[in-house]
Amino acid sequence: MKRSTDRILTTHAGSLPRSDELRQLIFAKAEGRPYDRDALASRLRGEIAEVVRTQIACGIDSVNDGELGKTNFNHYVRGRLSGFESRPFRPGQDPEPLSIAGRDRIRFPEYFATGGRGFGAFAGAGPSRPQVYCVAPLQYVGHEALREDIERFQSALQEVKAGEAFLPANTPGTIEHWLRNEHYPDEESFVHAIAEAMRVEYQAITDAGFLLQIDDPDLPDGWQMYPGMSVSDYRRYATLRVDALNHALRGIPSEKIRLHVCWGSFHGPHQHDIPLKDIVDIIFRVRAGSYSIEASNPRHEHEWRVFESVKPPEGAALIPGVVGHCTDFIEHPELVAERLVRYANLVGRENVMGGTDCGLGPRVGHARIAWAKLEALAEGARLATRRLWNRPHRARRTLRTQPVRRAPRSIRPRRRPT
Questions:
Q1: pLDDT of residue 147
Q2: pLDDT at residue 415 tops 70
Q3: In this structure, are residues 8 and 352 in contact, taking their beta carbons and an 8 Å threshold?
Q4: Is CATH 3.20.20.210 what the domain over 9-76+144-176+184-388 is classified as, yes or no?
């Protein structure tokens, strides 16, 4: 795991823009519709190589494959596990589907009745879609899909010089959001079974030499799903799932793991998100070397003050999201720098890495906006470096972010300020 020992490093939370053509192909595959396998394989390989080059050209130090081959958490994990079945929701017979906007739906029923807005529309979706039930022992069956993910990313990295490379994977608690238990005797054995199955993927990613990013929106957003829970009830709920995750991560060095948490990241009210202060110790319970949190959206930006009294575990880094997904406004680099310096002053400059609140790809209005936000992140990190290390600053030329079919050979990371 890279550290900001002589400058503020940058990364992001995961998903990045892809073409409409690729989107159509991967959703057709995920939904069981006919698709051209060769066209999908070719386009994935080409677009992953391009998205890696573009991250580096934007000034991002820790890069990934953009999650271009994944549709969403639900579809992606369904292709990796066996032991479940889908069937239509039966009102009065099946448990009511959970919503990551459950508390907000009570407060703002009219808003969700109209379907929400943009990426948040799914949060208001009703239970008419098929539900998924665990009906047999869970097993990992995604070996081939995972091998292809790793090989495509390795191939893309051969063409560039990246500071660090990571691949995301889903957590047991987040998988449990959509997978209802009809097989295991209790929730503890169910969650641990998910964890044990997904351990195969966690181990394979780190064995391939990549940093493992554990995506755990469940840790904060599960609070919305259970409106009747008290904070103490929810802390017990979250601790059980974190302990299962740690069991799945056993044997993997903590410096090879980073945790990303968010509050669902849907476009909506978020008025009833659980405060960071109520769960920050549980977040830090996860055995990771760095922790990625939301830090720039209007519901959670003020929570930097939590770190006036709470610090990351010894030797761990904090990755505050200093550019966000909740708006198409492109953050000014000076604002990004202010946010980074604020965190560096609280936890130490070497313990801070600039990040994003969540994945930008499906959450902002256009691909160029996503890339411009990453440029602003990198420029803000350079400004923060100047202030924290008292160094001169050289402006970086803005990247042209229009789609290209063939990137110039000359695209390489620029030399950093010294």
A1: 97
A2: no
A3: yes
A4: yes
